[in-house]
Amino acid sequence: MRELTIDPEFRDKVPPMTEAEYRQLEENILKAGRVKVPITIWNDNGKETIVDGHNRWSIVQKHPEIPYEVEEEHFADRYEAVVWICKNQLGRRNLTDAQKTYLIGRQYEAQKMTVGGDRGTEKAKDGKFTAGAQNEHLRKRRTAEIVAKEYGVGKETVKRAEKFVKGVDVAEKIECGVKDAILSGKSKVPKTVIAGIPKMPPQEQREVITVAKTGGAWPPKKEATGSKIGYPTERRQLNAVIKGAVADLQNTERPIEHTIDDLLEDLNAIITDFQGKARRSIANHSTLLQDETSKKKVIAALSEAETAIEKMKGLLL
């Protein structure tokens, strides 16, 4: 049998199947007598590394008599491979909202590196920053815009997705298994709270992680202690979020952007987001648009958006 390599980093980028989904896939393969979809690999310095098809490969290991095919993709580096994996998963699977956010954040994280990112941003030998270092935030902003446009969301949504990724990863390091609970949709903890985990005190991290892993209600109910000493959990969590936000504002390395281009980019992101959501909504409800009356009602609703925009234009006159 052909020797294919499993890279844990690539494998863990793919949302895991449930046991039922895995069993169904195995049954389908055995019934067909072959693996219909090729396993995709990347020749990484002589190692044939799987980038798509980890579950199919696992089933082939259990049933070596089952024939399968291999398809090769070519990448410049690991970052480009990760971007491909994220795009591939986002384009073909039924995903939870948390899984979509995680994949978008992962793609943005890797894509920043493929277009520059940390490369060329190190200090020169004389201690001075290079032009790459000075313009790093511009490259990141452009990358956020590219990813945002690809999925019909705003660039700030993409940046928040990256923070969500960091929160999930920190949570998984603290408590194994919480990542699956969060991404599967079992967790009821809001994504904004998960994103704040890296900046929370250890006690609060544990509390959030426990609730996320068990699928408990959020925020958790306060237990009556009869004591007025200390703050409720929600208050401490709010303080942690506020402290994190203040720390970001006080970061002297954080670029301050107050230009007309920033305003235009934000407006373009809002417009792109609206267009994407409107198109998806119309497509999802296309069966309701079979008669002229319904179509006229939708057109009238869209006309209200035009009216709102005209009013906003008036603010500038």
Protein described:
60% of the residues lie in helices and 5% in strands. It is built from 14 helices and 3 strands. It is globular, with a radius of gyration of 24 Å. The protein has a domain at 264-314. Strands 2-1-3 form a 3-stranded mixed sheet. Residues 116-131 have low confidence and may be disordered. By secondary structure, it is mainly α.
List keywords for this structure.
5% strand; 317 residues; 3-stranded mixed beta sheet; mainly alpha; globular
Question: Can you count the beta strands?
Answer: 3
In percent terms, what proportion of residues is strand? 5-15%
Strand order of the largest sheet: 2-1-3
Secondary-structure element string: HHEEHEHHHHHHHHHHH
What proportion of the residues is helical, as a percent range? 55-70%
Inertia-based shape = globular
Largest pleated sheet: 3 strands, mixed
* Mean pLDDT figure: 83
Structural class: mainly alpha
Quaternary state reads single chain
Beginning-to-end CA distance, first to last residue = 72 Å
> What is Rg?
24 Å
User: What is the overall number of helices?
Assistant: 14
Low-pLDDT segments, ≥5 res: 116-131
Any chance you could write out the topology, listing elements then pairs?
Blueprint: H1 8-11, H2 19-32, E1 39-44, E2 47-52, H3 54-62, E3 70-73, H4 78-92, H5 97-114, H6 131-134, H7 136-151, H8 155-174, H9 178-184, H10 191-195, H11 202-214, H12 233-250, H13 260-284, H14 292-314
Parallel strand pairs: 1-3
Antiparallel strand pairs: 1-2
Helix pairs in contact: 4-5, 5-7, 5-8, 7-8, 7-13, 9-11
